[in-house]
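User: My collaborator sent over this chain with a note saying "see what the structure looks like." That's all I know about it. Can you take a look?
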Amino acid sequence: MPFAPLSTVRHLIHTGRPLPFNVRDADGLLLLARGIRVQSPAQLEELFARGALVDVAELRSDHVDISQARREELPALWTRCLADVARALVQAGAGTAGFASALDTAAAPVQTLIARDPDLAIYQVLRQEHNGDVDYGAQRSMRTAITCALVAQRLGWPAVQTERAFKVGLTMNISMLELQGQLARQSTPPTAQQLTALQTHPMRSVRLLEQSGIQDADWLEGVLRHHELEDGSGYPSGCTEPGDLAALARRADAYTAKLSWRAGRDALAADQAGRDMFMREPGHEMTAALVKEFGLYPPGCYVRLGTGELAIVVERGPTITTPVVACLTNERGMPLARPLRLPTDPRTHPVAGVVGERSVNVRVSLDKLLAALLN
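Assistant: Without extra context I'll predict from the sequence alone. Here is the result:
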């Protein structure tokens, strides 16, 4: 059976919490059984030093767990899997060896979650949860990666190319995760040093990937060229043929940037973000696919119905303007004891517009929405 060094999946191990897999010694003999708790960082470092191993097949078991999980279990799986990916990204940004294996281990379950329920995947893109500069950058990368995968699927790309698009979106900014957070909360223009870091980040991200063992030439080229434009006005080289991977990553990044807050402005409303993308490139196949995939009212955004109810979108509907929502209040604004599932309709229950998250004073967790509405 194939093994991987335990050190390559350190992002999956948390002291004081049960091990998610068996740990073996250099000869493949069992050291610690799944479920045993690593008691201290020192114990963990000792395992790394001994050359402890983990069975690769166990690392892939998340695929089975996710495909067979009950729908109400999916929000917790999303939270866990995205946290694993964020830790893997930080590991790469720090130049830690073993990133290629760590990324495969952490990213594969997320790709399974995307395939399992695209509406919940879109919900993750709309979420705005982060606790620091690096976390902001990691969250932006994950939202871009999910968007890349969803649009690639809508475009009919092969599974291998869709996975590659996901990884390009996930890793194209690994050399500037902290800088992204700094710029988001910075009310002044970028400094000369920050501008230099922005201009050079594609090359620096490629260098980090290469140092981490990534050898996929198409993946690396997508990262290098994700800011290039067909008219030659992009950077870093003014290339006029960036390629499909880079072109998709750039558009996914632009869209998710509109949905993210920055100092001095709130996140753009989802319907306006979609319209902005369409108006910029009304005839482009990738942009059209992105807007169709997310709709004007994607899952996760709050809306006000024409009849007065405050609701949150939980599923895409038959058209980009008719989502399925969960009403959180009645038409007079009074909170409901239980969210009410409601398909919108232009005649009887039209969407009047998106409501900014700061204006929402009635919130329901995603797991409760699923339990009430989507079983």
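A starting point for your reply to your collaborator: The radius of gyration is 22 Å.
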